[in-house]
């Protein structure tokens, strides 16, 4: 199936490609870190950083290679034959364990969320993608690792970002986005929302219920799982 590449002008967001049946492919200028190491190396030289830059340096011998402790891993992450590099998401963020409407005010809800690590092993940064969104949401740790609260706060903030006219013109479903905006601001008490215009959450069309995240082929890129919201 032919894929589509999207780039928005005047936007700091990255370009990625996707089709209508799958999440965006991980096209990014930043190198990604894989959780796999040569079996002969006793201890991998890896540690997540907020803004990683992985240099292509090759040592002449293992004696010149610094060793850094492995990331934290819960005991259950190696159960049932899994390797220590299998990333597990926090139970709160698994599909069917969370169900919130991203088009509503979630400030109070986010404050109730845990500061426990969003993943095991812990990550300093991760990326959220969706086939409905021509943007990637970068989640950065506010502490020693990305927490459940960090992830939800970053996602919610991204969804409240205003859309430019150029971004709207290049939307795949302009009419659908406009209809989603009209539904979101209809009724009394939404005058300010109407004045602020279309937000990124409107690109989700009717699929504004966030029901968790799911892994992709890239261990630092996670798919946003969504469900339709019923409108009476």
Structural account:
Residues 22-31 have a biased composition (Polar residues). The chain is an alpha+beta fold and 232 residues long. The chain has a domain at 4-28 and 69-162 and 206-227. The protein has 5 helices and 9 strands. The chain has helices at 107-111, 148-159, 165-169, 174-185, 191-196, and strands spanning 4-6, 16-18, 88-89, 100-101, 119-120, 125-129, 137-140, 209-215, 221-227. The strands form 3 sheets. Strands 4-8-9-6-7 form a 5-stranded mixed beta sheet. A two-stranded antiparallel ribbon has the order 1-2. A hairpin with a 5-residue loop joins strand 8 (209-215) and strand 9 (221-227).
Core attributes:
5 helices, 232 residues, DUF6699, globular, disordered N terminus, DUF6699 domain-containing protein, alpha+beta, 17% helix, single chain, two-stranded antiparallel sheet
